[in-house]
Description:
By secondary structure, this protein is α/β, with parallel strands linked by helices. The protein has a single domain (53-339), classed as Metal-dependent hydrolases (TIM Barrel). It is built from 13 helices and 16 strands. The strands form 2 sheets. Strands 1, 2, 3, 4, 5, 14, 15 and 16 form an 8-stranded mixed β-sheet that branches. The protein starts with a strand and ends in an 11-residue tail after the last strand. 48% of the residues are buried.
Amino acid sequence: MLVIKDGCVHNGRGKVERVDIAIDGGKIVQIGSNIPSADADIINAAGLDVFPGFVDAQNAWGIIGPGWSGDDRSEDYDPLTPEMNVVYAFDQDGMNFQRVYTYGVTSACVAPSPKNVLRGQAAVFKTRGRSPYEMLVKEGVAMTASVTKAVKDNYGKRSGSPMAPMTRMGIFSLLTGKLEKAKRYDQAKDGYDAGCIALKKVLSGEMPLFVNCATRAEINSVFNALKPYDGIRIVLTGAFGLDADMPQIKDGSIPVIMGDHTEAYNNANYVTEFDRIIPLMEAGLPIAISCCGDDTASGRESLLWNALLWRRRGLSAEKALECISYIPAKILGVEDRIGSIEQGKDADITIWSKNPFESYEARIIHALISGKDAFRKEETPSCW
């Protein structure tokens, strides 16, 4: 057993208290004061801040690199690839090489890149481990789609052989056409179609549809195009042009994963209405902070940097933490295992010299993933 003693514990759901945390078998087994520790390994966290591991709500970690030969982000032969499962592209060495846990990220939703209209199925992985299946938290957490210029650039600007979709009209025509085909699909009559079988789960609401969008026009088009499919559980990703007055956003019925605002060459900071979105976050609506958008392989520090950017704009420290821990875990349907420090959950815990949401002098000291400190290289043998 391992006991973290006397730390200032921020549980990821707004609660802060000085308590001990007992860990056994990779799980949190007890939280409280003065937990007996005579026969346990001890981490003395007195004077330190303890957080749940951060959850990156969408990225390409583990399916790109190390090296250019390791780029498995998307199948670009067809803009409609809902049958693709990211689990088979995931490389534990690619993830280990990135060492994203050194900035507190202990789990990530890994998804195909946003170059296809229907991109394929995402999965949640731990950020350190010896095999994809040891690191896997849950597969099939979402079907991913994209309606942004990333799709148009991928197909419409191909040198010598451009193809559809070249416009937003083409994107939505392909999207709704494939959904209609899946809606009418009958395997007994039509034969095996992996894409339609995958989309049946989306149409029934079993699997949410994560839609990468950037502008307000794209967001409105998503709502309009998907209106006939009332079983689809929509989640907006990127969503830089989000209108905080949209009824579906104000009532919390459609979750949002806000995209990367740290990229110097995009205009996200100019179109995002921080002052109108932050009150919705503070009210507890399902709005997460992430690094997603048209490019989803940002630096290991980017998730925390994005949270700090929202913090500078006025978001409270504990809510900024929640937006990169419990809220993304809940949107991804894995809050029973990760995203907060609670008894029975995976022991994904980070320990910092100071509160990183309050001080730029904060340094991470320990990153526990399923109870094992990723900073101890011998815990997870790897060529990296």
